[in-house]
Structures are given as C-alpha cells and as structure tokens.
Amino acid sequence: MPASQVEISIPTTITSTTQKPYTLYNISLRLPLRSYIQQKRYSDFTALHSALTSQASSPPPATLPSKSWFTRTTSSPELTEERRKGLSAYLTAINEDPNERWRNTSAWRTFLNLPSTTTNSSSKSSLTSNLHNSLNNGQPITDPVVWLDHHRDLKSNLQDARLALTRRDQASTIHAQHEASAQAKKCLVRAGTMIGSLDTGLQSLSSARNNSSNVLGEGELRRRKDMLASAKREREGLENLLNAMSQKSQLDKTIAAASASTRDKAALLSSGASSSFNTNNATKPTPSSGRVLGKETSKTRALDNQGVLQLQQQMMQEQDADVMVLAQAVSRQKELGVAIQEELEVGDKLLEMLGEDVDRVQGKMDVARKRVDKIS
C-alpha cells in the first residue's frame, strides 16, 4: 500500500459522554475518493500495537506514548495534547514507512476501517476469494474488510437491477421486456441473499467485540447497520416496482384481449344484421320511408326494425366494453395512489427518525461542548 494513498492525522480530541468519561482521539483519514474520521481511545491504540507486533512478527517503527498512572487526560489538557501529538506521530510513522508489512495486516485495516482498494494485489486476491466463497456458500461475513467489499457488491447488484428495470420500461418488444425482467429478478434475488449474509455477519461482529483483531467501535457498527437498512429499503422498492410493472403488463394483455373480443363480436353482429336485412328485403315489401320513433340517421335509415334493434345491442356492448376499460384504468390509478401514499408515509417516518437522530446528536454535542468549556 503506497504511503501516498492515505493521509492520516489526529487534529482534535473529544471527551466521551459516558458515566466514566474518557478521551477519544479523532483520526482524520483522507483517501483518493473520500475522507472520514475514526474515533479511538488510548486502549484501542495499545490493542493495535499488540496486534501489529503479532501479525507482522515485528514491532512497528514507532512507539506509543507512555501511559500515565497518576494523571488522567480528561482532567489534564496538557497531557491530552501531548498524547494526541504522540499518537499522531505513531500512525504517521507506520503509514509512511517504506516497509508495508504493518500496513498489510488486517489489524491495521480494521483499526482505520480502510477499504480493500488500498491493499496490495495479493491482499486483493485473498479478499476477492473470501468474498466469492461467502457468496457461493451463503455464509455470514465476519471479516470487517470483506463485509465492506460485500456491501459494495450488494450496491452494484441493486444498481444493475435498477438499470434492468429502466431497460424494461423502455423496451418496445415483449421479448426484450421479458429479458430485462429476468435480469432484474436475478439481481434482486442475489441482493436478498447478500443482505442476509451481511446481516448475520454484522450480528457476529457485534457479539464478538472481545476479539481485538476484528473489533468494531459502537459508532462504526451503527453506521453499518444504517447502510444495511438503506440497502434493504432500496431492494424492497425495486422489487415493488418490478411487481407493479408485471401487473401492468398483465392488465394491458387483459385489456387487449377484451378489445379484440369486442371487435370480433361487433363484426359478427354486423354480419348477422346484414344477412337478416337481405332476407327481409327478398321476402317482404320495402318499409315506408319514415318512422314514428325519433329522427332517422344514416346508420338506421337503411335498416328495418330488427336491424335497428341489433345495431342498438351492438352499440350497447361497445359501450359496456369501454366502461370496463375505464374501470380498469381507474382501478390502476387507485393502486398507484395507494402505493404513493405508502411511500409518503415511509418517507415521513424516515424523516422523523432522522429528526430524532439529529436531536440526539445535538444533545451529545451540547454536553461535550459544556464539558470542554469547563475544562478550558
């Protein structure tokens, strides 16, 4: 892993809001495609140092700041600042060392939550192999780095499903629609399997926090749960969209069949009316030019009473068919309205949850700010 790919620093610290407060060090990481912050306490650094020494068979090129037995960082800003600088120098020394053996360990990647794209080619091959084995066997993902790879593959499958649904909507032939639907269904089924593996793996990671090599902080676990919940909602939305498209296709086929049947019946009735009219002309004298009931039209002027009756029945059947098509269209609009209402309700609930999270985080920030003001 080239040192230039990741920039690491510890610019600030905060005090936890737990009953027994402790200092958290904000590790700022800047990657080529994104930047984020990891929060770790001093005990996490000591566990990292032991894991690096064990996995690399050699201690890191820098030493950790010594532990203070008589002074706590929460009550001494000078000690906090001194330790922040020492820990920042410790991470920088490992990150910029020409020897990559410490950076290639799982302990280093897990501690900083680094994606697999920052590893070397052999590590990439190993992670890819683990990922495909997990997919094929349906096993839970218990490695934090492989979990992120699996999640990226899940997002890729959901994107493929969305593109397939778009192609299906734009397809002009039934064959193309069937192919796009099959592709979307395949991606959604695969995504469902991956979500199950990710969920089980996340539960395993949450319960195995005593393992220092694979430990994840509470904040990182919460972030991954939110990522998984978002993927679940996206998959459900795409599956509902696929079902709606299938129902629409069935409705269109039913309407087309009804229209064809109506046209066939109309043609049959018209042929019957013409035959009856010709027979009556051959056996009966021509009726009078005027009728008592109503005003004559071009359609009824050449017909006798039986022909007018058949014409009226045909028109009523056509009107019934039109009413049936209109009723189906109204029913479809109702279904769409109900679906939109459900989506709006889900959106309102998500907004309420977001508001609660914002209030909770704001409360924690206020408490932390007050404690910082007391310390300063």
Q: What keyword list fits this structure?
A:
376 residues; three-stranded antiparallel sheet; 8 helices; 3 strands; 68% helix; 6% strand
What is the subunit arrangement here? single chain
Report the sheet with the most strands, covering strand number, pairing sense and barrel closure.
3 strands, antiparallel
Structural class: mainly alpha
- Strand tally is 3
Average pLDDT for all residues? 79
H and E order:
EEEHHHHHHHH
Q: Reading side by side through the largest sheet, how are the strands ordered? A: 1-2-3
The helicity comes to 55-70%
Q: Shape from CA axes? A: elongated
Global Rg: 36 Å
Q: How much of the residues is beta strand, in percent?
A: 5-15%
Q: Unreliable stretches, pLDDT < 50, 5 or more residues?
A: 117-137, 210-214
Provide a count of the helices: 8
Cα end-to-end separation: 40 Å
Quick description:
This protein has 376 residues and is mainly α. It contains eight helices and three strands.
Describe this structure in words.
This protein is mainly alpha-helical and 376 residues long. 68% of the residues lie in helices and 6% in strands. The chain has eight helices and three strands; from the N terminus they run E-E-E-H-H-H-H-H-H-H-H. It has helices spanning 42-56, 77-96, 106-112, 121-137, 144-170, 174-207, 218-283, 305-375, and strands spanning 7-15, 23-30, 35-40. The chain has a three-stranded antiparallel beta sheet with strand order 1-2-3. A hairpin with a 7-residue loop joins strand 1 and strand 2. Helix 1 runs antiparallel to helix 3 (106-112), helix 4 packs across helix 5 and helix 6 packs antiparallel against helix 7. Residues 117-137 and 210-214 have low confidence and may be disordered.
